[in-house]
Amino acid sequence: MNHQPRLLAAGYAGVLCLLVALLLSSRFWLGDTPLHMQFEARLMPPSASHWLGTDALGRELWARTLAGLSLSFWVGLSAALLGTLIALSLASLAMLSSTLDALVSLLIDTLLSVPHLILLLLIAFALGGGTQAVIIAVALTHWPSLARVLRAELLSVRHAPYVAISKGFGKRQGFIVWHHLLPHLLPHCLVGALLLFPHAILHEAALTFLGVGLDPSQPAIGVLLADAMRYLTGGYWWLGVFPGLGLLLMVLAIERFAALLRKAL
Amino acid sequence: MLEAHQLSFRFASGSPLLTNISLRLAPGEWLGLSGDSGAGKSTLGKLLAGQLAPHQGSVTIDGSLLPARGVRPVQWLPQSPELAVNPRWRVGKILKEAWTPPDTLIEGFGIEPQWLKRFPNALSGGELQRVCVLRALAPGVRYVVADEISTMLDPITQLSLWQALKAHAERHQLGVIVISHDTALLNRLCNQRWHLAGGSLRVSSTELEAP
Predict the structure, then answer these.
(1) Which of A78, A175, B7, B133 could form a disulfide with B21 if both were Cys (CB 3.0 to 4.6 A apart)?
(2) What is the pLDDT along chain A (265 residues), one digit of tens a residue?
(3) Which stretches make up the ABC transporter domain (chain B) (predicted)?
C-alpha cells in the first residue's frame, strides 16, 4: 500500500485543524473589532499599526477577513453536510425500487443539465437571502454529483456476492446495511462532503457578492469583496486582495485535503 | 435429502435457461455437475443454494422448503473468493461472520493463524479460497455448492483444498455439489455425475441412474 498520500493527507489535516481552530476561536478573542470604526484611520494601507489596512469606515481588515472566513467556514460546513445528507438519502431511496431509482436518476440528470449558478440564485432569492437561504440553496444545488456516485456504489455493493453470502448466513437487513453498506459508503461521503465544502464557500461568497446572500452588515467575505469593488479604481488594492487571498487559501487547503483523502481511502 | 423438483429458470428477457431440472442428493454424497460455458451450471448452483429463486419448481431438504431466515443449510461457494469477502474486513472477521471454527479445523484447511489478522488483498487466491470454504462449513450447513472453486488454483493447492473438504464432509455427512469443467476431478470426487446441456440435465455416466 502506498503510504505517501496518507502522510500528505495527515499533514494537510494538521494544517486544516490549526486553521479551523483559529477560525473557530476568532469569534471569542476578536470581540467587536471587525465592526469597530475608527474615522481618523479610514482607508489606511497595510502597516505596522493596521496589519492588513482599514476599510472606508476605518475598520481593521485583518479582523474583518478573519471574521468573514469564520462565517464562510460555518456556512460552507453546514451546506456541505446538508448536501451530503440529501445525496445519501436519495441514493438510498433509489435502492428501494426500480421506479424510485428511475425517478432519482431523472432528478439527478435534470439538475446536472441546468447551470447550477442560475438555480442557486433563484433559490437564494426565493428564500429571501440570509445565512439559512444560502445554506439551503447551496445544498439543494450541489447534491446530484455525489448522489450519482453514492447510487453507483450502493448498486455495486448491494449485488456483491459477499452481501448475498452474508444473507445466506442468516444476517438480517440491518446487519448488512450497518456492517457492509455503510462502511463502504462512508469514505465516499466524507470525500464528497469535503469536495463540496470549498464549492459551498465560493458560492456563498458569490451569492453575497451578488446581493442575495448574507446580510451586508455581516463581515462576510462576499460582503468585503463587494465593498472592495467600489474602491479598487481608487488604488485601495488591500480591500480586495487580502479577503480574496484568505478565501483562496482556505478553499485550496480543503480541496487539496479532500483530493489526498480520496487517494488515501 | 436435498431435492430439486422440476426447477425452471429464465432470463429477464424471457428466454429459458433451465427447464424442469430435478435431482436428489443424500447427506454425505458428492454430485458432479459439468456443462459448457453458459449452460446454466452456476445458475443451477445458486438456485439450489437459495441465492436465486426459480420461476417454477422448488428446492427442499427432507421434504421442507429452504428456510427464509437463519443459516441456509445449502451454502454457495463462488469461483472468485475475492468477490465473496468484504474487502474492508480482516480475514478473522470474515470467518466469524459465519462461525468460529475450532483451531484444529483452521489448521486442517492449511490456514495460518497470522492470516486472520490480514485483509483479503494480502492473501493469494488459493489462501482466500480456503478461508471461504471453511467459512461455508458453519454449524447448520448440510450441503455445499462448490462452483469451480479450484479452477484458478495450482494442482498442489487444489489437492489440499479438496482433501480438507472431503475429510470434513465425511466426518459431518456433508453433501457436496461440485461444479467443474474438469471431468477427471469430477470422476475422482463424485458419486453422481450430471451434464447440463440445452437447459436440462442428463446423466453423464451410464452406470448412474436418473433420480
Answers:
(1) B7
(2) 456 777 877 787 888 888 888 888 887 888 888 888 888 889 999 999 888 999 989 999 999 999 999 988 888 899 999 999 999 999 999 988 899 999 999 999 999 999 988 999 999 999 988 889 999 999 999 999 999 999 999 999 988 999 999 999 999 988 998 999 988 898 889 888 888 888 888 888 888 888 888 888 888 888 888 888 889 888 999 999 999 998 888 888 888 888 887 777 7
(3) 2-210
Report whether B55 contacts B47 (CB < 8 A).
Answer: no
Predicted ipTM of the assembly: 0.86
| Nearest CB to A169; choose among B80, B85, B97 | B97
- The residue written with cell numbers 488591500 in the block is A238
Picking from A153, A162, A172 by the largest number of B CB atoms within 10 A of its own CB, the best residue to mutate is A162
Cβ pair A162:B84 closer than 8 A: yes
Q: Among partner residues B72, B83, B88, which is closest to A168 by beta-carbon distance? A: B72
- Cell numbers describing residue B138: 458453519
- What are A144's three cell numbers? 446530484
Rounded CA gap, B47 and B51, in Å? Answer: 6
**Superfamily of domain A4-32+53-264, CATH level 4:** MetI-like (1.10.3720.10)
Taking 60 as the threshold, does the pLDDT of residue B204 lie above it? Answer: no
**Residue appearing with cell numbers 417454477:** B56
Mark out the alpha helices in B49-108 (DSSP H runs). 91-98, 103-108
Residues of B in contact with A184 (CB under 8 A): 88
In a mutagenesis test of the B interface, which of A165, A167, A184 is the best target, namely the one with the most B β-carbons within 10 Å? A165
For B54, residues 6+ apart whose C-beta sits below 8 A from its C-beta are B7, B8, B9, B18, B47
- Give how far B126 is from chain A: nearest CA, Å: 17
Most A-contacting residue of B90, B91, B95, B97 (CB-CB within 10 A), to test interface: B97
Of B71, B83, B138, the CB nearest to A162: B83
Sorting pLDDT into bands at 50, 70 and 90, what band is B202? low
Give the structural domain span for B142: 27-56+67-191
Inter-chain residue contact B49 with A168, CB threshold 8 Å: yes
C-alpha–C-alpha distance, residues A238 and A45, integer Å = 7
